[in-house]
Amino acid sequence: MSKLHLLPVKRTHSIVTANMAIHYSQPRGFVGRNICYLVMYGDVCYGSIAGGSATRFLPGRGEIGELNNGVNNIFYHIERPQNGYPLRNFTSAVLRLYRETVERDWLLKYGDTVSWHETLVELPRSGDCYKRDEWRLVGQTKGFTCKRVAGKGTDSWSGKRVWDTTNLRPKLVFLRVVDAQSQKILDRRPQKGIITP
Questions:
Q1: Helix (H) / strand (E) containing 173
Q2: Out of 137-151, 159-173, 175-189, which region has the weakest mean confidence (pLDDT)?
Q3: For 105-142, what is each residue's pLDDT tens digit?
């Protein structure tokens, strides 16, 4: 086994939930499809990372195939030890390994080929580790947040959606396509909200 590897775990694994509790976004869980991993180097755990359902509407991103062909890096938390990471550009190396691993596991678990990866990075963070792994900044969200509460919703999910359009938390939208053919499809489609460097 490689020194750097990802260990598949359930989303309720104690390390994943502990990472979620101290992460800046403090998610309470994941909705929809998801595959979670512990980030391991040898027998030491440095954090956790998860791939989940692609976001339905996202500025600057088209779809290649169906929405199920996209994977959102819904959670990524790494703890840097006092003596530093075990290798140079560790966070980007983890992202590269995550992409390769989740593409294989997504197909095995859900039967869908992955055409693109996406992630949202809340400001003022800049997404440097994604940039080093060649993800493209393609847009920015308005920052609305949503939670479900008891009550009847307008869709097939349980609960009613409550949107907060006042306390905005804008996020940068990063995209990484799987192959050149997928990139050509995205480049041909008109997209709103693209940020040019």
A1: strand 171-177
A2: 175-189
A3: 999 999 999 999 999 999 999 999 999 999 999 999 88
Only one residue has tokens 């999910």, namely 157
Cα–Cα distance, 21 to 168 (Å, whole number): 21
Rounded Cα gap, residues 138 and 194, in angstroms: 5
Question: What does the CA dihedral 22, 89, 35, 171 come to, rounded to 10 degrees?
Answer: 60
The pair of structure tokens assigned to 104 is 């294989």
CA 118 to chain centre: 6
pLDDT-based confidence at 1, cuts 50/70/90? low
